[in-house]
Amino acid sequence: MRERQTLEDGIGAVKSLTQALDDNLELIAMGEEEGDDSIVTEAEDALRSMRGEVKARQVETLLSGEADTNDTYLEIHAGAGGTESQDWASMLLRMYTRWAERRRFKVEILEVHDGEEAGIKSATVLIKGHNAYGWLKTESGVHRLVRISPYDSNARRHTSFASVWVYPVIDDSIVIEIPESDVRIDTYRSSGSGGQHVNTTDSAVRITHIPTGIAVACQAERSQHKNRAKAWEMLRSRLYEEELKKREAAANATESSKSDIGWGHQIRSYVLQPYQLVKDLRTGVESTSPSDVLDGDLDEFMEASLSHRISGSEGAAIADID
């Protein structure tokens, strides 16, 4: 049903755009024949206004990967640097949450480890929405922040790093078999708010896949059983995403860029001081309004990354749009 709805939406959009194009071209021809400049101007304005929708639809065609239409998990981890990096990690969590809300996606917090003084050490969220993984998959990597530290009494400029990791939710049509002998399961007490239950029961679950070293954790539910089931689901998704990475040559660069959370490995820089600039180091896309970007205005960066990731005419088509 989901595939059918996707196809119906795509076909309907093409038919609608084609009809609008034909109608406006006819209006222009009619206006020129009758010498009515107002009709010509109105039709030309309508054609110009179609550019945004055409571009959006062309970007959607890039979201044709095996799992692009799926929901997605998003992990954020603070790098070295203590409070600075942990605060930066919390800013990234807010940024992606705001981006998802703009698209009317649903966001579920699965796990958060708070920092000692401020911010977070790590967080895992589930983002539900059509093409959620397709849009977010190019966000995996190291993100760098440069700013005057609010935690430095001398008001010095600091550089902080945090990593983002994105992997798709897999559905029942994809079977991932994991022998229990290949995993280690740990239980612990949940952190954060939640009342007495959080403080007295080991409801949080962490599963480590020993052959790959991949670890996932969930503390969203009060029930250890539910957290264990969700953690298994997350682990299967991570292993599936690893297989997708192996089959995508472009993803090799993403993997290497995430090897260290530090200098030389970042995919995007957010500079708040001494000037205002956000720059994607893979595509060269820039924004001089970091406040808007940190408030979830990420579509331009994501579209450019998708175009950059797809080689050939599809990527070139996006780049050619005025």
From TrEMBL:
PROSITE patterns: RF_PROK_I
Keyword field contains Cytoplasm: yes
Pfam families reported in the protein's UniProt record: PCRF (PF03462), RF-1 (PF00472)
Cellular location(s): Cytoplasm
Residues bearing PTM N5-methylglutamine: Q196
Keyword Transport: no
Post-translational modification: Methylated by PrmC. Methylation increases the termination efficiency of RF2.
Single GO term (MF): translation release factor activity, codon specific
Domain Prokaryotic-type class I peptide chain release factors residues, every copy: 189-205
Keywords carried by this UniProt record: Cytoplasm, Methylation, Protein biosynthesis
GO CC annotation: cytoplasm
Top-level taxon of the source organism: Bacteria
Record-stated family: Belongs to the prokaryotic/mitochondrial release factor family.
Function, in words: Peptide chain release factor 2 directs the termination of translation in response to the peptide chain termination codons UGA and UAA.
Xref: NCBIfam families: prfB
Entry protein name: Peptide chain release factor 2
Lineage: Bacteria, Pseudomonadati, Pseudomonadota, Alphaproteobacteria, Hyphomicrobiales
